[in-house]
Structures are given as structure tokens and as C-alpha cells.
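[Meeting: bench + compute handoff]

Bench side (C.D.) handed over the final construct sequence. Compute side (W.E.) agreed to return the predicted structure before the next meeting so the bench team could plan truncations. Sequence as handed over:
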Amino acid sequence: MLYTFLVIVFVTVCLMLIGIILIQSSKTGGMGTAMGGAAVTAAFGGQGADKLLTRITTGFAVTFMVLALLLSWLDTPGSENSAGSESIISQKADSDMQGTAPALDIIPEPEATPASEEEN
């Protein structure tokens, strides 16, 4: 339940972050002027809009990072691994070490040579 709620909040923050970034005006005009940048500038003034949008972007970016770390720490529900368990690489190495590898002969047995067969 908590995981699902956090995923929904995470996706919402992602979409809002994309929208805020697209609304910001760039030095060359960009999407900010095409998508109502003049309305934002008229509402908050020239410098006020830039400062406000920068602060909102920073807030969404920090929230995005915190939620991403929290979701990765919580782990997906129903998975066999829980937070703080062994890594997949360690589990694979442990399973490989449990006698699944074939035994290797270090010193090969001497083979019969054709010369020794002719002598018999």
C-alpha cells in the first residue's frame, strides 16, 4: 500500500517537474515563450517568474531524488529479496560454489601411445 502510494506520488512529481522545466524561459526563447511564458512573466514580473520557477524546480528535483532513493530502498512488494539482503551477484556466486562445477583433473593420466601398442 505504501509502495503504491509512493509510486503514484513519484510519477506525479516527475510529470510536474517536466512541466515546470518546459515552462521556464530560456535564453533563446524555447518552449517557455511558446507555451504561455508571457502570462507567467505578466503575473510575477520579469525576475519574479524566473526566481519562483527556479525554486519550484529545485523543490521538485529534491523530492524526485528522495522518492527515488526511498523507492529503491523499500524494494518492490512481493519480491523475494527484502531491503538489506544479499545482492543477486552474491546469491549467484553462492549457488555456483555449492558443487555445481565439474571436477577438473590437474594432472592428466598418461595415454597409450601408438608406439607402445605396437610393442605388445
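W.E. noted at the follow-up: Helices lie at 2-23, 30-34, 37-44, 46-74, 88-96, 114-119. C.D. will use this when planning the next construct.
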